[in-house]
Amino acid sequence: MTERLSTDEYRQRRLAMMTETDFLRAVVTEAHRNGWRLHHQRPCRTKDGWASAIIGDKGFPDMCLVRGGKVMFWELKSEKGRVSEDQQRWIDQLGSVAMVLRPSDWPYIEKALR
Known about the structure:
Blueprint: H1 7-17, H2 20-33, E1 37-39, E2 44-46, E3 49-51, E4 63-67, E5 70-76, H3 85-94, E6 98-101, H4 106-113
């Protein structure tokens, strides 16, 4: 027998299973749909492990978004993803313009990007 879910239940289950990569793609799509410019630095794999072309302290937020003089720094995590100490330091230092977001925060994300 097939389990029947309400729209909200289905959405919550889908969000709970979302990977960080899928979440990132969804946020990028929504940001661009609403006229935001954004920056996300993807790490690359080298023969020595993971690397980035950026010089700076570890833990910088996943995404910087700007529109109309407003700036936001978002660290994106899956529902079970953990924030590292380095990431938390950045969030703390950036203050009110920075936050950690998860798929379950989607209603907030939609509102913030409008």
